[in-house]
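Lab notebook, bench 4. Continuing the backlog of folding jobs that were queued last week. Each job is logged with the same field layout so the records can be merged later without manual cleanup. Today's entry covers histidine kinase, a 437-residue chain. Filled in by technician R.K.

JOB TYPE: sequence-to-structure
TARGET: histidine kinase
LENGTH: 437
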Amino acid sequence: MRLLPRRLLSRIMLLIAILLAVSIYASLKIFDYFDREPRATAAALQAVTIVNYTRASLIASHENRRLALLSELSGREGVRVYAADFLEDIETLPADPFISLMAQKIRDKLGEETIITVNHYDIPGLWISFNVGQDDFWVVIPKIQVDRPFPWHWLGWAAVVGLLSLVGGYLLTARINRPLTMLVHAAERLRNGEPAPKLPEDSVEELREVTHTFNEMAESLARLDAERTLLLAGVSHDIRTPLARLRLAVEMLPQEADYMKHGMIEDISDMDNIIHQFLDFVRGVEGEPTRMMDINDLLRALSERQLRAGRELKISLGPKYFIPIRPLAMQRLLDNLVGNAYNYGKGKVEVRSQVMADKIVVSVLDNGPGIPPEHAERLLRPFERMDSARNKYEGGSGLGLAICNRISKLHGGQLYLLNRPEGGLEARLSLPILPNT
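JOB STATUS: finished
OUTPUT FIELD FOLLOWS
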């Protein structure tokens, strides 16, 4: 989800670059189209002038002087004059729109019988025929006077315009992308149960209303969460006081009521545990700082606590690896998972840890009846229970797994409930090796 704005930025920049390239190419083509006729007219006028000047000079000269005059004319301005023999092979004009247009304009001035070719006898230039009496001649206008040089300066300006447009597009896109990125990060924090920071509302006008609405939503959620926390904490505290008095009263019952006292004490203890879960759920763990530690240390401490409670917890530990952990929160998560395994299983619980390429996996395994696979995700939500599938234990409020799920997300991890092929349930906690930034 975090990568979406960067991908969007790359796609927008690529789109801008493609549009710029297409627009520059189209602009050059349009310019060339509208510039073609004026250039062809000017070149044709130049060619017609040279032909008429050369023809007039030959007509005005004496026949005995024409060869000398041809030699003299051929040396001026690079224009050459040759005697023509129209039985020779004459190449057709190349399929160039500019040359074709210019040739047509020359014929309009000199007559349709005028022969025009280029690069005749491998001599570069524009060849135009004319006659003086019974004699036929070629005027060869050098190529440099006919063809327009490639407009490299236009490409240079186009490159400058394209570069400036890309820089402008990047700045504009970054301006739009910055509030989008902040919005994504804030939404991610809300999704993980963390308070979202207030977003600045000085972004572009199109996103200002979205940012303002998101800030109002985050503030409303924070107020609701605070009110819920205050309500549950107050109710839990108020209920604990009469529970304590009730337990004291039960303890003071005469010995004749021992058969009743045990059940009443268990009920009171269950109620106290439910209240404790309420307090754990509303208290949250977001404020606890992280520490670099090996989760195997927490698993060893967990095994020792279970041993003191008269339970033998089997643990299989992977290699030592340090990751950022909130110790008290992770301890609460592991206690809840192992407690559920003992409550719903058949007394045999195992905990395993593994270090993989990009994550650490902790599995809590029991040998109970398991759960319907379609309800695995639902059980991670608050106040959800599946006593119909695992009905050995009737206590609890349905908050234990929700607390575990919240803590796993707070560490950037994921909690899964999986049925084991050999029977029983696996609560699999996956924690990323890299910190969740």
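OBSERVATION: The chain has ten helices and eleven strands.
SIGNED: R.K.
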